[in-house]
Amino acid sequence: ALGLWLGGIFWRVLGRLVPEQIAGTAMGLNSSVVMFTAGVAIVSGILFGLVPALKATRLSLHEALKEGGRTGESRSGMKLRDGLVVCQFSLAFALLVGAGLMIQTLWNLRQLDLGFRADHMLTSILPLPRPKYDTDVKIRNFYRDVLQQLQTKPGIVSAGFTSDAPFTTEGDTESYRVQGEPPPQPGMWNDALYREVTPGYLAAVNARLIEGRYLQESDTESSEQVVVVNEFLAKRHWPGQSALGKHLSVGDPRVNPWRTVVGVVGDLRERGLLLAMKPAVYLSTGQVKRPGAEYLVVRTQQDPNQAASSVRSAVWAVDSEQPVARTQTMDDIIEANVADRTRPMVLLGMFAGLALVLACIGVYGVLAYAVSQRTREIGVRMALGARAADVTRMILARGLRLGVLGLAAGLALAIGLGRLLQTLLFGVKPVAPAVYVATAAALLLVSLLACAIPAMRAARVDPMVALRDE
Questions:
Q1: How far apart are CA 350 and CA 429, in angstroms?
Q2: pLDDT digits (tens, 9 = 90+) for 289-333
Q3: Helix or strand holding residue 441 (H, E)
């Protein structure tokens, strides 16, 4: 009953880890869950109660009388209890190592340079219906009018349209040719992330301008055809040189014009945190046919969620029938990008914490029972001159021995779990010495704390009282 009550509380946390694609299904505490959980609890109680019950029925009277004359633990019982504690410690060690590897992975991902500022950024998708926006002029006028409306809204710093916002796609690429370079071999081509953007978009995401300029309103069909490239592309084709004034063609050079590089921006992690960097080209919506910049990116002064209503009103002031879909902050998009790392980390952390608690309870229980069973022995030792410190060391040594054996047994489990998580790791190896050493040290410290109460109790045994008890 207590477990079901706690389960309802924990579900508030665990429910957030459910992937979006199955979040709509009925999940939670219901009659099936209650019956299953109750069945597992009852069967477990029967099985784990049956083993000592059967053992008691097979007890030899002669052996029982001999054991009754002793005040210490039975050797078989001691081995069984110690073995259970070692298993608990080994499982706790493996789970804590797994959680540590995932924490290190998330830390490494968080330290990556995005190339843009994700804070105070709101994104929305505005899919323009083609029958209504059937010309380039209509599409460009829509972009212009919405951006002008946004300039009048309080709290809006800047805004821009793009064909793909960062972290929203892993592809959307286009081939390109660099003027002066030999054509690629058959079946080979240069491939770059292709982005159609309105002037102001790169500034809105705070893309770092390395040289040249951003795209401008003056970049139209009648002006010189230009392009902004990322640093990765510039270093690949013009290492040690300025990319400004160089020419490249995006797509088929027989159809598309040569474009002049007018700016180089820092590398934006367009495809997320986990994929390698690629060349990227940014073209002005004023210089492409049928521009498809459906993502609206807005930078705000306040909490970006509070600007959602301003974005919708700005769009509907231009076109009251235009849908505004998937409005979300860039921080939320990034969180979704690493969700497949966050979920295992949280689950492993919770299970590791539970295993650690059980291991501590096991150590405490075994040692507390040992002290109670060896009260007369401890009293005799102290009557013969043993000091309290000696008794304390004896109890602590047993607890530490169990912890060390558990760590040794859990090492293979931890290595196996690390290799199982290898596809989820980033910037850390499955066998990371720092994680293993830190986890082992933490477990040994916890085992010492679990030993402390039984050890202090043993040190306070009065020899005269212990001998009279027998």
A1: 22
A2: 999 999 999 999 989 998 999 999 999 999 999 999 999 999 999
A3: helix 433-459
Cβ atoms of 451 and 399 within 8 Å: the answer is yes
Measured distance CA(43)–CA(48) in Å, rounded: 9
Q: Which residues of 283-307 are buried (b: 16+ CB within 10 A; e: fewer)?
A: bbbbbbeebbbbbbbbbbeeebeeb
pLDDT tens track for 378-402: 777 777 777 778 778 888 888 888 8
SS3 275: coil
Q: What is the pTM of this model?
A: 0.72
What angle in degrees, to the nearest 10, is found between the helix axes of 388-420 and 339-373?
150
CA 384 to chain centre: 58
Q: What's the token pair of residue 354?
A: 């539970």
Q: 3-state class of 239 per DSSP?
A: coil
Distance in angstroms between the alpha carbons of the first and the last residue of the chain: 41
Quick check: 424 and 97 in contact, CB under 8 A?
no
How much of the chain is in helix, strand and coil states, percent to nearest 5?
55, 15, 30
Cα–Cα distances in Å, from 316 out to 137, 175, 197? 19, 36, 21
Contacts of 43 (CB under 8 A, 6+ apart): none
Chain centre to alpha carbon of residue 206:
26
Torsion of the alpha carbons at 260, 262, 265 and 271, rounded to the nearest 10: -30
Task: Tell me how crowded residue 203 is: count the other CB atoms within 10 A of its CB.
Answer: 16
Residue listed under structure tokens 């979300």? 328
Can you list the positions of beta strands (E) in 93-252? 121-125, 156-162, 173-178, 190-197, 209-212, 226-230, 247-250
